[in-house]
Amino acid sequence: MTRGAAAIALATVMAVVACSPTARQAAPSSGSPARSGGTVVFAWQEPTTLDPLRSTGAQTSALVYGVAVEGLFRTGPDGEPVPVLARDVPTLANGGVALDGAGMTVRYALRDGVRWSDGEPFTSQDVLFTWRAIMTDPKVSTREGYDLIESIETPDQRTAVVRYRALYPGYLTRFDALVPKHLLDGASEAVRAEYGRAPLGTGPFRITEFAAGSQVIAERNPHYRVPGRPYLDRVIFRFVSSIDAAKVQVIAGEVHVAVSVGEVEAAELADKGIVVETSSSPIVEAVSFNLARPGDPADPAVPHPVLADVVVRRALLLATPKRDIVDKLLLGRAAVGTSEIPLGRWASGDVRQDEYDPDRARMLLNDAGWAVGSDGIRAKGGVRASLRIVGTTGNAVREQVEQVIVDAWKAIGVEAAIRNVPPAVLTAPWSGKGVRKRGDFDVLISQLGLGTVGGTEPLGYLSQRHRCGNIPRAENSGAGANYERLCDPRVDEQLDRAGRTMDASVQDAAYREVLRIVNERVVAIWLYDRSRNHAYAPSVGGHRPNPWDLPIWNIEEWYLR
Fold this sequence. Notes:
seven-stranded mixed β-sheet; alpha+beta; 26 strands; 561 residues; six-stranded mixed β-sheet; 21% strand
């Protein structure tokens, strides 16, 4: 997920008062340390880049750069936006947002006394530069929302006035990571590449080393704006190849933290005396279908020879035993998935996927002309119902889920082969030939949901995931997260509708309609709702659960007992 900023819809934030508390200035949690110092070591995947504007690995990169790079806002544990580098949350109610014909103007008041970790002052020019960098750099991961900005004025060093040419309810999700003008303005690609290994930020730590294949080291930022923070001297992200490796290392005491462990691993770690912090999340484990002919890259103009048929996709949904997966593989520690948004006010109980019914699946395929061959595998018009499932290596539970799916689909006459790749290969950017971006798969198993792309406000997320224009392709340098290659004008129309209004009820109705269309088109199977499970050595204190953000959201408060 992106670091920091996430928002509720514009009509809801109208009620947020200008004096909203800041996460960075919050009082220490009870049990704060008698002394500061020490190093906390994470077990984590190796990111392809730490450049927040070019990162496509969601939390893979954001967990690391997030200790150093900040934005204007983030989302607190209650799901509400809280200011970070901004002084307050601009709304209609407090005058920070004003309507201007068909558009809107947002006035951001920036926090005083903020410095980049090299000592240079943070100013409104950095906000302006970040926008310009997003709009001109061909390697950025998304321009969603930023492309609606007409201009940014900087009347003084502590004020940025952003003028949108249209209403944009997700404005608080933008500028979630800011980059330094004084370092990157006019920088060569070599300098930008180096920035991707050690991004300069305003956060509690500064990244001092990126040793490929080994680790990232972040040291205390001497210019951090909060006196006495962070408590820790250093944070290290030690690269591991799998969740199983992270689990072994935290049990052995070689690392202090294992992030995003699965439901089964959480139970095992708790039995070993490891502190497991669990909360709900807006994330789902999903099986996504590529509607385009796969390749490197896929061609969105050419339908998938098998999965372009919605009957096949619905049959695969009906043949997938979600309940068995949850009960037998996850020990009943998750909820069966029904929709793409399982948490928050936008979660809709009236949008639910069909339940397990393999007999109906066979009937649908028979009626659609997918006949069973002598080897038990179906074919139609000379096309064999044979698919390639791609996930990440090193995740034992996910591999077990894949095997269950392979067996279940074979029982209705669809052949599937597992072809997993390392996480860095799956999530690499377009230029790095990332499997997900390029569309080099038939079926993809991964985490999806609010916060994985586009922030935790539905307009940004659903736009990134399902707009026609956000299908990654050469023409947009792979921007966007529409990995299923779905292009349905009804979806774009509903998202346009949500973006043209300040009426929360109209927005919510539009989001529900998008979710209904996505379910109708069966672009993915929502396997189960993910919980957030983070494992900590008992010696680590100060961490607090946040369903909407990464565990490092309050890293400046962490300490060692």
